[in-house]
Amino acid sequence: MALVVQKYGGSSVADATCIKRVAQRIVATKKAGNDVVVAVSAMGDTTDDLLNLAEQVSPLPPARELDMLLTSGERISMALLAMAIANLGQEAHSFTGSQAGVITNATHGKARIIDVTPGRIREALDQGRIAIVAGFQGISQGTKDITTLGRGGTDTTAVALAAALEADVCEIYTDVDGVFTADPRIVPTARKIPGISYEEMMEMAACGAKVLHLRCVEYARRFNMPIHVRSSFSTKEGTWVVSDPYSEGTEMEQPIVSGVAHDRSEAKITVVGVPDKIGEAAAIVRTLADAEINIDMIVQNVSAAATGRTDISFTIPATDSQTALGALKKIQDQVGFESLRYDDQIGKISLIGAGMRSHPGITAKFFAALAGVGVNIEMISTSEIRISVIVAEDGVDAAVAAAHKAFDLDADEVEAVVYGGTGR
Amino acid sequence: MALVVQKYGGSSVADATCIKRVAQRIVATKKAGNDVVVAVSAMGDTTDDLLNLAEQVSPLPPARELDMLLTSGERISMALLAMAIANLGQEAHSFTGSQAGVITNATHGKARIIDVTPGRIREALDQGRIAIVAGFQGISQGTKDITTLGRGGTDTTAVALAAALEADVCEIYTDVDGVFTADPRIVPTARKIPGISYEEMMEMAACGAKVLHLRCVEYARRFNMPIHVRSSFSTKEGTWVVSDPYSEGTEMEQPIVSGVAHDRSEAKITVVGVPDKIGEAAAIVRTLADAEINIDMIVQNVSAAATGRTDISFTIPATDSQTALGALKKIQDQVGFESLRYDDQIGKISLIGAGMRSHPGITAKFFAALAGVGVNIEMISTSEIRISVIVAEDGVDAAVAAAHKAFDLDADEVEAVVYGGTGR
Q1: What tens digit of pLDDT does each residue of A141-190 get?
Q2: What does DSSP say about strands A386-392 and A346-352: parallel, antiparallel, or unpaired?
Q3: Do B93 and A53 touch (CB under 8 A)?
Q4: What residue spans define the domains of chain B?
Q5: CATH classification of A3-175 is 3.20.20.210, yes or no?
């Protein structure tokens, strides 16, 4: 008998019909002889509706109260799911994050899980029950306040519970069949990846692949918990995210490039004419850090000898642009730079593959593919298993398709893919 | 500095505008120099919406999960209320029933409060905060499951918190100006009662007066906690429910009759032709008790000497009629009664007044008033401070008005009253 943790997102439980279908799937897993724990998100648009209510009473609601408000969403979905399961003849109990022992720090809105003490969940399993746990939420260690985990929070809840319960697998149900070699909306010939390593998946998530969130994969890697990403609309095998998918004994051959990710959510800021003195770049980076803005890529041009000035370009989440520009203007006189240039019509293309470590020449082939479709590279950054470039936004689709083809990722046949979206 | 506990029902927080108005009232109370604790119900129709969702997934949802579901309603309203208060510049924290230390037994759907340990509430007050507490809910002592208190639950939460915190007063805000001598929709000349004793209020609540629930008044009496029932739409003094409103030093003179209550929610069942033997009535009553049906009034006719048979009539909540009739039919052969008669076109009129104890002749005057408007009395029951009669439903309005007039309760002027309704 295996212990299976399953996660269902908001689109999987959007209404009563969806909830009943998910209940059937859970009951089938239980009847197949498994112990089952389920982490569930709020129904469809619940979160948006609650945020809308909050806006009506306060322009800037306190984070503690916003968390209290939003966590009512999972309370509704998990109770309904437990009822639907009971209606199929299996006993199910629902548990809040607090009852499930999900202990977090006190950073409301994006709390981090620091411990999971699932005594009540284990007890429910011992009694033959299915345990339904509210995703996305926990309780802060010292202050015992309700917290939320931020985007992708329910994925993290599922993996953290699986790790604490020493589950055999954590199944993440979504509205696509798994992780693809590229976004099938851009590359119709994209293939489902049967297995991928934690490291590759983390790079994919960080580079714009939306199917799993970075924090959840980090958590899974730390506890070596296998994740099975699969569709809630079919019983097909999805994508296994594991420590070493290419180890001996498996049938998978390690590809050089596992996938091509893209991300249109960043913006580029160029600080023009920065005096080329020690400490000027540090002052700029410090200013952004103080404003709690994460810099993704950063490049500094070679200083022009005639002027003794240089340009510094970096990319940040486009949503932080106003904050970043405001903070930089405040230090213009102090740093002595000439002007700021802003561009949000950009996209990032990333090649990811553990095989890159042992294969030289990847970069050359990648750049040649982009040149072949007339796409100019504006910035470059690399890690051991990733190459990312910034290009103009109107070149993103062509660049992704070209790279996908160049590294032989195209499938012989186009698979049918259904798309939707879930935020938690 | 006083400690004030306030209760706001669902109609007082029906939407964002209502919540903001309630927030202003709370902040005004705080600014007047009081510590403030607020018990709040779910917004307007939330409970019905949630029940509707539950029905869609399961015809008979488990009580534990139904409680989990319904308690999300207060989680929403209390968080929004705390935000609205913060927006007015005061610090407020919201607390679930569990966080507020409302400990109940494990009877889901109608749990009883068995202890209140409001450590976190007291701490919040000590830090200068306003504490907003979810009404209607608690946590079960042994199993630590979320429970709900049933109808009028938020009133009970407020009084229980007030008692545990040794508050100076528990203010119950509603959509009428207080407790009236009769329902002003039937008797336009009804007066607001300035003060009433716990005992009288309990009789009023048990006899159909909807403004306060019986259990909340019982709780207040046990802890001698003054309740001030008042309108959330005005600043007028409402009705004080206290131990002795007519004690020396107060200006109130004890009336003989404090009020006339009525109740259309009961039905009458007559068991016809019961053999007049020892134990037959007991068997009937036992059957209903086993079906968890509360009998209100019961009368047994004098046995007809010729047949050796008698009729037994009783009243029960009309909603339990089908269950009661079914249970009785099952014992028809065993008891040997002839038939069942059912009538839900009835109403109960009750005169309530602590002054009845020392004034004879009340019953005669009451019955004369009813006879004067042609209303026939079908059943009678009395307590030390109450006389109740069952009449045909179409006589209820005339009977209430006649009794109200006979005992000089009519006001000189008609007060304007706004009506609405709240279930929790």
Answers
A1: 989 999 999 888 999 999 999 999 999 999 999 888 999 999 999 999 99
A2: antiparallel
A3: no
A4: 3-175
A5: no
